[in-house]
Amino acid sequence: MIAAEQPSAKEGWTNVIFSNLSLPTDGDFSIETALKNKEGSVVVSGTSHLTIASNASVPRILFGDLHVHSDDTVGTESSIYNFSYGRDIAGLDVLGYTANDFQITRARWDATVELIQTLNEPGRFVIFPGTEWCGNSAAGGDHNVIFLADPTKYSPEFPFDRHGNVARSFEWSEDGPDDLVPGTWPLDEVYCTYAGEAESHLLIPHVGGRRCNLAWHHPQLERLVEIGSAWGQFEWLLRDAVRRGWKLGVSANSDEHRGRCGGGVPGTAVFGTRGGLTGILAPSLDRENVAAALRARRTFATTGQRLVGLVSTPDGQSFQGDEVELVNMVPFELDYHFLGEKGFSSIEAFDASGLIWRRNFWSEAQLPATILRVTWRSKTVRSLPGGVVEWYHHPVG
Ligand SMILES: [Zn+2]
Fold first, then answer.
1. Band (168; pLDDT cuts 50, 70, 90)
2. Which InterPro entries does the record cross-reference, listed alphabetically (predicted)?
């Protein structure tokens, strides 16, 4: 057992970093924490789990939130508040700032990109600038644009592209022009803007705001799809993508508007669920490697819990996100390694036809039925207006 104690900050947010602790062996460990008041009484306590496996094919699991709004646009807290909260309180490794593209002013955009540069710290915290392209669903729907390159080497092409063309959907704000003029619109125009440097960009279609329309797809730019956020859980969006044949990895983020990125708690009606997290399998915590892992779809998505899902071929050479070619249709085996705090009730696998495999741990355990489990979900309505939009989900604002 290792025991350590440290004083915390007296005012405002508080966090404590215990450095120089090392574990001597592989294995499963418990981390027990307690916050004491100055009289020494425990105010709050908690337990979490840590698995160390030196032979794991990935050195470390990174957690990111790639969808965060500050008061540059629709959020209620400043960018520095959001970034500090994400790094110090939520303990994120990776953060993606998303300015609503129609609303952000040039001055605020430039200032926040500069702030991001000062906070990006290889080995500790990777932060990407980005925008939310806010086209309505009939024009392609919301897509976040993450600028993956080092801004000092390749300046984000926003609010104008390198040719001087407008790179935002339209401009509308209290400081903006009197007339509403469509800019980069519809989604095809966004593809045209960034496809020439696809490796430096990542587009993430998502639900919430203006629901994305997966009738549009650009395989070089769109590598992940957001299937969970404070708006709700959208597994159906992934199934929609798979049915269409789109090869997309998964992402879940907060879409945080209130400064609590990295798994903010549910709040007002439209933000009724906890924000999600994107798990990232990158060899190291730096912009280049995280960007490559995101584009390689080496990710998993959680509902905000620090869960881990690893799927690989038995030889450990290929992971989720990779494409594997089957020779002569031999039986295909995959190893899976799921880690969590409380155990899993079931693990399921789907393909384009639906559920193809399931393990039900409740029935496998053959334990007496002493637990009543209550689950609920929001309403999903399928609609087919002209085959363009297949799904409608409540709540959507
Ligand atoms: Zn958003």
1. very high
2. Pol/histidinol_Pase-like (IPR016195)
Written as one letter, the residue type at 284 is: S
pTM for this model (two decimals)? 0.92
Query: Would the pLDDT of 380 be above 60?
Result: no
Task: Say how many Å lie between the CA of residue 294 and the centre of ligand 1.
Answer: 19
Q: What's the CA-to-centroid distance between 378 and ligand 1, angstroms?
A: 20
Q: Which domains does the chain have, with CATH numbers?
A: 1-55 (no CATH), 62-312 (3.20.20.140)
Give the C-alpha distances (Å, rounded to integers) separating 63 from 125, 143, 309, 366. 10, 21, 12, 34
Report whether 256 contacts 93 (CB < 8 A). no
Residues whose CB is under 5 A from ligand 1 (ion)?
132, 255
Q: Report how far ligand 1's centroid is from the alpha carbon of 113 (Å).
A: 18
Average pLDDT for residues 343-347, to the nearest whole number? 89
Parallel/antiparallel/unpaired status of strands 354-360 and 346-351: antiparallel
Q: Measured in angstroms, how far is the CA atom of residue 365 from the centroid of ligand 1?
A: 41
Contact 302, 252 (CB under 8 A): yes
